[in-house]
């Protein structure tokens, strides 16, 4: 599908993993501009919704980079604001897809002059993380939303649910036409070997950050972005991957879901126009089923 591909002139979205502070700090950082713009076009999101959705997709990808191999992460943000439920499903291979309850949300800028993601998400609310891996029973972790700004909420999740001191920054910037010009983020985790003095130094660096999209705009690469965040501290890269908004839906899956509705329901759906149209909630691709198609479904 052409609308899932980045514009050819865009810099590829990338994620890198690294270690700093003598291996006692883990960092993942990513530029997600192209995939968030793809998501905006697919879901027709308005600016505040674009920022909330883009932060969720970016957060999911960053979390996947920290997860075990083969794990699929479903991140859900369920606030009480106008945007409804946000969802991102991501894998460690750099793929993400998602849904947004109400894409047409555009609020006034907040007091800091930024897109009011916290207002669009709305408190009170919950953040749910589901980790699935093969045949293993899925892991569920849930925390209350702290601000609805998503970065802080993810940090709270790691602290409360996984007991890891974590800083998370995610950001999306749109132009006056609503297109995504910069998106990305980072997760930094303090590992048990980090000393109190080093933790203070790290906290100082993070509080001096001007903002994710500002730092990303000024950085030439994701490596530069990490160096800017760590402000001259030594770090080394462990791995990197390309990122993409991708959906793996296919016609058979929709056919199965329709068959599960039962013969009576299918007859009713067909009675109006003689066909049934399904739309994928992740990529908006449509599949059309005619009466002829359904003949083999029920014996
Ligand atoms: Zn799809």
CATH superfamily of the largest domain: Hsp33 domain
The CATH class of the largest domain turns out to be Alpha Beta
SSE order, as H and E?
Answer: EEHHEEEHEEHEEHHHEEHHEEH
Number of domains: 2
Backbone structural class: alpha+beta
Distinct compounds present: zinc ion
Please count the beta strands (DSSP E, at least 2 residues each).
13
List the keywords.
6-stranded mixed sheet; Hsp33 domain; 5-stranded antiparallel sheet; elongated; CBS domain Like; 299 residues; 10 helices; binds zinc ion; alpha+beta; disordered N terminus
3D architecture notes:
The two termini are 34 Å apart. Strands 7-6-3-4-5-11 form a 6-stranded mixed β-sheet, with helices on one face. It folds into 2 domains: 6-245, Hsp33 domain; 251-294, CBS domain Like (Alpha-Beta Complex), CATH 3.90.1280. 34% of the residues lie in helices and 29% in strands. α1 crosses α2 (47-66). β4 and β5 form a beta hairpin. It has helices at residues 33-43, 47-66, 117-121, 151-161, 196-207, 212-218, 222-230, 251-261, 263-273, 291-294; strands at 14-20, 25-31, 72-78, 85-91, 95-100, 126-132, 139-144, 166-174, 180-190, 235-242, 244-245, 275-279, 286-290. The chain is an alpha+beta fold and 299 residues long. Zinc ion is lined by residues 247, 249, 280, 282-283, 285. Zinc ion binds at residues 247, 249, 280, 282-283, 285.
Explain the layout of strands and helices.
Blueprint: E1 14-20, E2 25-31, H1 33-43, H2 47-66, E3 72-78, E4 85-91, E5 95-100, H3 117-121, E6 126-132, E7 139-144, H4 151-161, E8 166-174, E9 180-190, H5 196-207, H6 212-218, H7 222-230, E10 235-242, E11 244-245, H8 251-261, H9 263-273, E12 275-279, E13 286-290, H10 291-294
Helix pairs in contact: 1-2
């Amino acid at each position: 599908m052409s609308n899932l591909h980045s514009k050819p002139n865009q810099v590829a979205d990338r994620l890198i993993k690294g270690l700093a502070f003598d291996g006692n700090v883990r960092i993942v950082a990513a530029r997600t501009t192209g995939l968030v713009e793809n998501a905006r076009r697919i879901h027709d999101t308005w600016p505040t919704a674009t920022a909330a959705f883009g932060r969720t997709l970016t957060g999911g990808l960053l979390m996947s980079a920290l997860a075990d191999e083969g794990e699929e992460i479903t991140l859900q943000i369920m606030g009480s604001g106008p945007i409804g439920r946000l969802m991102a499903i991501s894998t460690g291979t750099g793929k993400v897809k998602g849904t947004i309850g109400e894409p047409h949300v555009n609020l006034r800028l907040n007091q800091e002059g930024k897109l009011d993601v916290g207002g669009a998400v709305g408190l009170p609310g919950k953040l749910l993380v589901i980790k699935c891996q093969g045949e293993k029973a899925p892991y569920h972790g849930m925390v209350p939303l702290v601000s609805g700004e998503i970065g802080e909420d993810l940090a709270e999740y790691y602290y409360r649910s996984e007991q890891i001191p974590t800083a998370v920054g995610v950001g999306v910037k749109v132009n006056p036409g609503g297109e995504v010009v910069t998106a990305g983020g980072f997760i930094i985790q303090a590992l048990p070997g980090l000393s109190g003095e080093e933790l203070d130094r790290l906290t100082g660096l993070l509080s001096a950050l001007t903002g994710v999209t500002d730092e990303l705009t000024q950085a030439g690469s994701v490596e530069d972005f990490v160096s800017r965040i760590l402000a001259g501290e030594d770090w080394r890269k462990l791995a990197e991957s390309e990122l993409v908004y991708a959906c793996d839906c296919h016609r058979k899956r929709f056919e199965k879901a329709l068959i599960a509705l039962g013969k009576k329901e299918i007859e009713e759906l067909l009675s109006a126009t003689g066909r049934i149209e399904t739309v994928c909630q992740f990529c908006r691709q449509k599949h059309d089923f005619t009466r002829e198609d359904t003949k083999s479904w029920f014996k």
